[in-house]
Design brief:
By secondary structure, the chain is mainly β. It has 2 helices and 15 strands.
Length: about 130
C-alpha cells in the first residue's frame, strides 16, 4: 500500500503544456510533465516526463525520468532514467537504472548511483521544494 507521500509523488499535478515556455526554476513535490519548453532547472520529488513535443534546456532532477522529447542538460534520476525511441538527451546522467531504447539519442557521460546516496532534494537544502500543507 502506498503512503500519502508516495501517492503525492506518483500523481502528475504539474504540466507545462504545449506552446508554453518557462524560463527559471521549477520545484514540484509530485510529478511533472513537460510538453512545452523549459529553460533553467527542474527539481521534482516524483517523476519527470518529457513528452515528444517537450524541449528542456536545463538540469533535471527527479525520482524516475522518462524522455520522449529533447533534453539539453544534465539529468539526475534517483531511480530509473528511460529514453524512448523519440527521445534525445545531450548531457551527463546519473541514475540507478538506465534504459535506452533503439532509436533514442544519448550523448554524454553516465554514472551509476549507489542506493544509499542522498536524493537531489536532500543534497540541496538551500532551496527546498515547497511541501504540501496537511
Amino acid at each position: 500500500m502506498l503512503g500519502r507521500k508516495d501517492a503525492q509523488r506518483d500523481k502528475v499535478e504539474t504540466i507545462v503544456g504545449k506552446g508554453t515556455k518557462v524560463n527559471g526554476k521549477i520545484y514540484v513535490v509530485g510529478s511533472l510533465r513537460v510538453e512545452g519548453k523549459v529553460e533553467g532547472e527542474i527539481k521534482a520529488g516524483g517523476d519527470v516526463f518529457i513528452g515528444e513535443e517537450g524541449l528542456v534546456v536545463a538540469s533535471v532532477y527527479g525520482r524516475n525520468i522518462n524522455i520522449a522529447g529533447e533534453v539539453q542538460g544534465n539529468v539526475d534520476a534517483m531511480e530509473k532514467l528511460e529514453i524512448v525511441p523519440t527521445g534525445k538527451l545531450f548531457g551527463d546522467i546519473r541514475m540507478s537504472k538506465l534504459i535506452i531504447e533503439d532509436g533514442a539519442t544519448f550523448k554524454g557521460k553516465s554514472e551509476a548511483r549507489k542506493n544509499a546516496e542522498k536524493t537531489p532534494m536532500e543534497e540541496d537544502e538551500e532551496e527546498p521544494i515547497p511541501q504540501e500543507e496537511s
